[in-house]
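Researcher: Go.
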Amino acid sequence: MVNLSPFVNKRSTVLTYLFMILAIVPQVIMLFITKSYDNLLIIGTAILACFFTEILNFVNKRHVNLSILLCILKGTLIGFFLPAGYPIFSVFFITLISMLFVKYAFGDLRVSWINPVVLTVAICWFIGRISFPGFLLTRDFLAAKNPSLTLIQEGIFPTYAFDEKITAMFNDTTFSLFGVSIPQGYVSLFWDSQSVIPAFRFNFLTIVFAILLIAFDVITFEIPFFYFMTYLILVKFLSPVFSGGIPMQGDMLLALLSSGTLFAGFILVQWFGTIPMTNKGKIFYGIAGGVIAFIFAGPGTTPIGSIITVLFLNILSPVIQFVENRITKVKLTNMLRNENAGDIGQ
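Model: Structure:
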């Protein structure tokens, strides 16, 4: 018997959870190094709430399918998209209620088509949006040729002491070959933007762990490639049209390095059970995600745009997977019909 359920993802394994947790560990260590204790407390609280979800499920049903790694992963990701200073008790109870809702409304958290992390963060933002940072870009910033550079020069994105030497090294050894140079500040933005939301901070580490996850086949390459490509093309060519900026000069680096774009695009967009199974479905899913990201995240620096993007992608995903199933059934039916016709002809 062939199971064509669109909500089963073969990557939902203990090994996958372990790889993803290990990939995020360096960023957790960076939170310790930078003394971001408020963020660490929020992450720990979210993890605790995820464990309580399983305990309550056991008390209610006398059955528990507890995955320690999955609880750690979900709680860590929730904490990574919440700002420092968000009320701890709110984090605990919103996470607990959201996890229970997803479990009973959409099924097992490992294969649910709605991403429980995204739903939890979205509810946290809706209830306590005052705790989230605001949209950094004003019309004056958007009218500039490089809004990201303007934000750096204004001190909104801090610059580290090592930035000058590393920037000079890259300009002398690499970028000079192409006749270009990068201004000071972008190295710091890659390394740590110092946002109050951890998922927005360590872009370099995010790229490194994404490469490792793709290399070990934990996440796919197609979805983030088409997701980022579509989003950045729209930012470059359409963003100035709506913001009054310089035509065809949208700031792609700012869009990529703010709003948690990289973190969400590599991890949340590909949550277990939420992505299509065929290559064509994945490509369409990635392109659709890029379009939705442009609608809700715009040119960047939004505190919630990436989360809303993934939430809408989750709503779209069952439709894509339904079409995939219908196409697969038609192909199987035709294949069986042809085999039967061949047997009769013999």
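Model: Residues 329 and 335 are 10 Å apart (CA to CA).
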